[in-house]
Design goal:
Blueprint lengths: L1 E10 L6 E11 L4 E5 L6 H9 L6 E6 L6 H4 L3 E4 L11 H5 L1 H5 L4 H11 L18 H14 L4 E5 L7 H18 L2 E5 L3 H7 L2 E5 L6 E6 L14 H20 L1
Parallel strand pairs: 3-7, 3-8, 5-6, 6-7
Antiparallel strand pairs: 1-2, 1-4, 8-9
Helix pairs in contact: 6-7, 8-9
Length: 255
């Protein structure tokens, strides 16, 4: 479904230019959940921005279903959940979640009904009319995920959605995402610094080098689906996690 070939991105010109990405190539198949790991500053978020059409790549190609859509056209294919939940403090949880549909032109009443119907499945029942400051960090992230999911894009881009949460809440949200993904399916590319999260959730893990970021390794995660985070507690999973941790820690030292 998604094919990236030789993508590069440079910011600035002349001696002050910075190569953020260089010769990045990867594929994510229809229905696949992939993860992207690498040291800070290696260009993971930059790559997601290019895929989503929020920025333009300088070299290479980004194809969706064999086509090469423009940056504007790619906005129709990808739902993007950033690191921050970006909930508006003056809107209720329901109003925040339905906002994307309203911006797309869906009638406000219909948009909010479609959102409300899914609140129980996303663990938000009873909090429809609470403001963001009245929600826990985990609930805010679930609301953000639901807002992204409601856009009905065939491919989700998740940029460290649980990175700002404490370890206990992050573990709970990882389990919730695994269970939710078993139910809703689709394709996804997850950016994470957490090797355990990458192995617990994904089918393949792409390892990136320090800047300029490129793909240095691809790790197959041969764990059964439907997946739960307990699948990452097996001996085979621990070997994958240890390998990823060694790879990323070595790259952090180099960086």
């Amino acid at each position: 479904m998604l094919q990236i070939e030789g993508v590069g991105k440079r910011y600035g010109t002349g001696e002050g230019a910075i190569d953020a990405l260089m010769d990045v190539s990867l594929t994510v198949a229809d229905g696949e959940f992939a993860a992207l790991v690498g040291p800070s500053g290696c260009g993971k978020t930059t790559l997601l921005n290019l895929i989503a059409g929020l920025d333009e790549h300088d070299t290479g190609s980004i194809q969706v279903d064999g086509q090469s859509p423009s940056a504007e056209e790619r906005l129709r294919y990808f739902g993007y959940m950033p690191q921050e939940d970006l909930l508006f403090p003056w809107r209720s949880a329901l109003e925040n979640v339905s906002l994307g549909l309203e911006v797309q032109g869906v009638d406000k009443r219909e948009a909010r009904q479609r959102a409300a119907d899914l609140f129980p499945q996303f663990g938000l029942a009873g909090f429809e009319h609470r403001r963001p400051h009245e929600l826990s960090g985990g609930m805010r992230q679930r609301a953000s995920f639901l807002r992204t999911y409601l856009l009905a894009r065939p491919f989700l881009l998740l940029d460290e959605p649980f990175g700002a949460l404490d370890a206990i809440t992050r573990g709970q949200l990882q389990s919730w995402l695994a269970e939710t993904w078993n139910r809703i399916g689709g394709s996804a590319l997850l950016v994470t610094h957490d090797p355990h999260e990458a192995v617990a959730l994904s089918d393949r893990v792409f390892v990136m080098s320090p800047r300029p970021g490129t793909i240095t390794n691809v790790l197959e995660v041969d764990l059964p689906r439907p997946r739960t985070t307990r699948a990452a507690e097996t001996e085979a999973a621990h070997q994958l996690i240890d390998y990823l941790r060694h790879e990323t820690e070595a790259e952090e030292v180099i960086a």
